[in-house]
Amino acid sequence: MKRYKEPHFQERIAAAASARTEVLERLRTKMPVVQAVTPEQAERRLAKEAAAREKRQ
Fold first, then answer.
1. How confident is the model at residue 3 (pLDDT cuts 50, 70, 90)?
2. Which of these, 49, 31, 51, lies nearest to 41 by C-alpha position?
3. How many Cβ atoms are within 10 Å of 10's Cβ, its own excluded?
4. Is the distance from CB of 6 to CB of 14 less than 8 angstroms?
5. What pLDDT digit, counting tens, does each position of 7-56 carry?
6. ∠11-13-19 over CA atoms, to 5°?
7. Between the N and C ends of the chain, which has fewer C-beta atoms within 10 Å?
8. CA–CA separation, 28 vs 26, rounded Å?
9. How far is CA 48 from the centre of its chain?
10. Residues 27, 21, 32: CA angle, nearest 5 degrees
11. Could you please report the per-residue DSSP string of 1-38?
12. Distances from the Cα of 17 to the Cαs of 12, 26, 27, 34, 39, in angstroms?
């Protein structure tokens, strides 16, 4: 019966490095998420900040 051949340290390091480069390449090619802020959202945010500022004072 053949024994199971465990990968050597160098083989494990090479496999980890290739997996890491594959994942990094996939992340680089992924489109960034850009959220457009509408004027209504900006007004709401400013009103919320003003209310918080008033509450602190």
1. low
2. 49
3. 8
4. no
5. 899 999 999 999 999 999 999 888 777 777 788 888 999 999 999 999 99
6. 100
7. N
8. 5
9. 28
10. 10
11. -PPP-PPPHHHHHHHHHHHHHHHHHHHHHSPPP-PPPP
12. 9, 14, 15, 30, 46
CA atoms within 13 A on the CB side of 47: 6
Q: Give dist(CA 55, CA 48) in Å, integer.
A: 11
Residue type, 33: V
Amino acid in position 14: A
Cα–Cα distance, 4 to 2 (Å, whole number): 7
